[in-house]
Amino acid sequence: GDSVTQMEGPVTLSEEAFLTINCTYTATGYPSLFWYVQYPGEGLQLLLKATKADDKGSNKGFEATYRKETTSFHLEKGSVQVSDSAVYFCALLASGGSYIPTFGRGTSLIVHP
Amino acid sequence: DTGVSQDPRHKITKRGQNVTFRCDPISEHNRLYWYRQTLGQGPEFLTYFQNEAQLEKSRLLSDRFSAERPKGSFSTLEIQRTEQGDSAMYLCASSLGVGEGSNQPQHFGDGTRLSIL
Fold this sequence. Notes:
The complex is a heterodimer of chains A (113) and B (117).
Chain A: E1 3-6, E2 11-14, E3 19-21, E4 23-26, E5 32-38, E6 44-50, E7 56-59, E8 62-65, E9 75-77, E10 86-93, E11 102-103, E12 107-112
Parallel strand pairs in A: 2-12
Antiparallel strand pairs in A: 1-4, 3-9, 5-6, 5-10, 7-8, 8-9, 10-11, 10-12
Chain B: E1 5-7, E2 10-13, E3 19-24, E4 31-37, E5 44-50, E6 53-57, E7 65-68, E8 75-79, E9 88-95, E10 107-108, E11 112-116
């Protein structure tokens, strides 16, 4: 079945450091890929998405590129802020009529001033 | 667009009691999902509606759980005879599905946190 694997956290960085959170997936066909962010006590918010190979999703300084050859969708940001501290979830929505997304377990990011 | 709304935000109840949660999706969204989330985990799929039809239900879902979406708008999730293991955050999400294989992302509510004493 479909699956999403994220790097284990927590990831701890100083403000203005470079961020990478790895995400790899297993799915047939050409799934759509998403990153969601969850702040404490809140639901998940869509951060960015990509729907086909080589697409780059971007939002609020975060980027992720859909790499079909390595089945990856790594999240990056050039300079993190304390306010980016949250849990980040990678997810896929399989092609071919499935409406149920598959989520990774989440990666906690802690940014220190 | 007021987003997805869930009520209540918190529910504390004794083991064995029944609880009901409500979700109001974004008004034009035809798809509605319920998830359960425990600490340190991603959302676990429970059930999915397209309009008023419940199209999928997790095989792992106990018979004590039931969900409805009677008019294709708001939805309720009921848990009967609650157990300690039901303590979790229950998330609702909605999306706009247009045709087969639609890849529209989901919009989540802030969840209902259930604590079983």
